[in-house]
Every structure is written in structure tokens, then in C-alpha cells.
Specification:
- By secondary structure, the chain is mainly alpha-helical.
- It has one domain: Methane Monooxygenase Hydroxylase, Chain G, domain 1.
- The chain is built from seven helices and no strands.
- The chain starts with a helix and ends with a helix.
């Protein structure tokens, strides 16, 4: 079905941008699920659907790579870009599934804030991906890159503070373990956003 939605003539930049935009949609839905927890079953189902859509786009990109002799940049970089972009939505999906499987009764303020940082990071990754096609404003790309690095630092701080708060709380041990695992998954998602930015920075530097 996804192939019918894509233009007949598409290229790597189209697919990168499509993947980033679809992943951003998934992260927005996940953030909404966290805010509305526990009344979030439909949102969690939608996150799973979006993750599958991203997988399809990733497969289409790899298929295009196999069929294309001349690529806009190094073939290994294209493969790494596909992998890194897919890592982000995979981690969003993993966090969403853990919330469902663990049957969480509590969503902590720290988790909400971490998910907010993840969403902000994904929004900036989406912008960075567009610079691969349009490289007219390198200063703007550098500015957005610095913002993502700051968000990653904020995510690390929230993760540490969140863990400390969990271990100081009077929650039962099982709940603490569940939340800790979700914290870790969200934090990995933020780290993956920074990884994507570093990758794009490197490609832009080579193309300049």
C-alpha cells in the first residue's frame, strides 16, 4: 500500500524526508499517548502502524540503492543513514510497547519531560534531513545541530534525575524496574537523534 502512495519517480532525498516525517508523526502520537495515559490504546496501536510504515520506507531506500549506480553520496553513508533514522522510530515503538506490556499504573513527570525532549529532538532531525537536499543555509543546519546536542544533554540530565527520583520513591520494586527500562529506552531514542545529526553533519561537510 505504501508504494502506491509514493510518487513513481522518487529518489533518496524523497525517501529520507518521508521517513523522517513519518517518524516525527509517530513520536507525536507517542507523546500524546504519554500525556493521556492510561487512555492511550488507540495511540499505541497507531505508533506500531507508523513504525511499520517507516520499515517499509527503509526497505524501499535499500531497494533503490541496489538499483542505482550513481548515488548523491557514499553508499555506506546511505545505509548508515537508513539505519540511524530507523533506530529512532524503533525505540519510540519499543517504549510504547513496554508501556502497554508492563501495564503501567503511573506516568511520572520525569518520563513526560523526557518524552517531550525526544519529540523536540525528532522535530530537529526532521529539519536536518531536509538540508541533505537543500544545502543553501549551512549556518542554519549548524544551529539546529547545536540545538539537538543541547537537547541530548538535557535528556541525559533528566534520565539521571529521573532514576534518582525513582530510587528515592516509595514505589514498589517492580514498578521501579518497569519505569527504569522505559526511561532507558526513551533516553536511547534521544541519543539516536544526536547520532542522526552527527551523521548528517558529516555528510554536509563532505558535500560542501
Amino acid at each position: 500500500m505504501l508504494k502506491s502512495l509514493m510518487p513513481k519517480q522518487y529518489g533518496f532525498f524523497d525517501l529520507f524526508e518521508r521517513h523522517a516525517q513519518t517518524a516525527l508523526e509517530g513520536t507525536k502520537v507517542f507523546a500524546k499517548a504519554v500525556e493521556e495515559w492510561p487512555n492511550s490504546a488507540d495511540d499505541l496501536n497507531r505508533v506500531a502502524e507508523i513504525e511499520h510504515e517507516c520499515d517499509n520506507i527503509a526497505h524501499m531506500t535499500i531497494d533503490l540503492l541496489h538499483r542505482t549506480f550513481i548515488t548523491p553520496f557514499d553508499r555506506d553513508q546511505i545505509l548508515k543513514m537508513v539505519s540511524i533514522l530507523d533506530d529512532i522510530i524503533d525505540l519510540v515503538h519499543a517504549a510504547a510497547q513496554r508501556m502497554r506490556l508492563f501495564e503501567l499504573k503511573t506516568i511520572t513527570p520525569e518520563l513526560r519531560e523526557m518524552v517531550g525532549v525526544l519529540l523536540e529532538s525528532q522535530e530537529r532531525v526532521n529539519k536536518m534531513v531536509c538540508f541533505l537536499r537543500n544545502r543553501d543555509n549551512e549556518n542554519k543546519a549548524h544551529e539546529i545541530s547545536k540545538e539537538i546536542h543541547s537537547l541530548e544533554n538535557k535528556g541525559d540530565r533528566l534520565f539521571r534525575e529521573g532514576l534518582a527520583s525513582l530510587f528515592r520513591s516509595d514505589m514498589n520494586v517492580i514498578t521501579v524496574i518497569k519505569l527504569k527500562e522505559i526511561y532507558e529506552t526513551v533516553e536511547e531514542g534521544i541519543d539516536s537523534c544526536e547520532d542522526a545529526t552527527n551523521m548528517i553533519d558529516g555528510i554536509l561537510l563532505e558535500l560542501s
